Amino acid sequence: MRSRLAPSPTGAQHLGNARTHLIAFWATRHAGGELAFRIDDLDSPRVKRWAIDQAVEDIRWLGITWDGPVVLQSTHQTNYDVALKRLIESRDNLAYPCYCSRKDIVEAASAPHESSFRGEGPIYPGICSHFRVGESVDPREHYWRLRVRDHTIRFEDLVLGCQACNPADELGDFPITSKAGQVAYQLAVVVDDIQQEIDCVIRGNDLVASTFRQLELYDRLQHTPPRYAHVPLVRGLDGRRLAKRHGDTRLSHYRQRGVRPQQIVGWAAHSLGLIDRPEPCSAAELVDRFDWSKLPHDDTLIDPEAI
């Protein structure tokens, strides 16, 4: 097993991030595998340079160890260029230039229903999909979309069980670059995971829709996809994702308050059903207790002040 930590440095790491990182650590070490550490820093307008160093510091503070150096996603541009060229120039018409704004998509008279995945918005109605490889590309500002197929994709999730989706009906064609020409998240993650030989991706259950898109990319790039585990999120007592309205849930905040990492680790393990009580313990001593079958499917609601 080879998995990875892949924090995004758009802000500080919080309790929810910590629990997902711990799951990746426990699962990988329990299987005797390797754990890579990659900083997903391609979201350049939102990336905060201080957050890169802080993410490494936070994760090390939790007692999580990894294998090899910390790698920055932004250093992989050559790999992205190769993959993009392959998709764009394929005779199978895998991708096409899109000139549509978000407003164009919402207002399109032929726009289909909203995606069945929460938060995904309207499905792209194919306004620009008439393009065929070999035609000249309009020099107007554009980005590239991947054509998805009208078929059912299935995968067996290590937490959620069998997942199925028809990407044409439920997701639609999706961007693989930005208008600035930068590779988009979905393609970047696939290229990175292929390059780093990741065979098990552990991440939050809000990314199931992304997984179906990425499975399309694995198939188009002719690579075997990894296994996936979509773990429950940590939310405030109101059921919403952790944010400032719930108080300060940053790991750096707990460190400054003098909270020991063992306390955070114990809370995380108890919330996942790995130990009976939320008692302080180190990350390393819980490796042998890890069990995928014990993890809950539902998200965890917490009062950050009670940690």
Largest β sheet strand count, sense and barrel closure: 3 strands, parallel
* Structural class assignment: alpha/beta
CATH topology of the largest domain: Rossmann fold
Can you give the mean pLDDT? 93
CATH architecture classification of the largest domain: 3-Layer(aba) Sandwich
- Order of strands across the biggest sheet? 1-2-3
Strand content: 15-25%
Could you state the CATH homologous superfamily of the largest domain?
HUPs
Taking the alpha carbons of the first and last residues, their distance comes to: 32 Å
Any idea what the radius of gyration is?
A: 20 Å
Task: State the share of residues found in helices, binned by percent.
Answer: 25-40%
Low-confidence stretches: none
CATH hierarchy, class of the largest domain: Alpha Beta
Q: Judging from the principal axes of the Cα atoms, what is the shape?
A: elongated
- What is the count of structural domains? 2
What does this molecule look like?
30% of the residues lie in helices and 16% in strands. It has 307 residues and is an alpha/beta fold. It has two domains: 2-75 and 232-306, Rossmann fold (3-Layer(aba) Sandwich); 77-185, Rossmann fold (3-Layer(aba) Sandwich), CATH 3.40.50. The strands form five sheets. It has a three-stranded parallel beta sheet with strand order 1-2-3. Helix 1 (15-30) crosses helix 9 and helix 6 (185-195) crosses helix 7 (208-220). The relative contact order is 0.17.
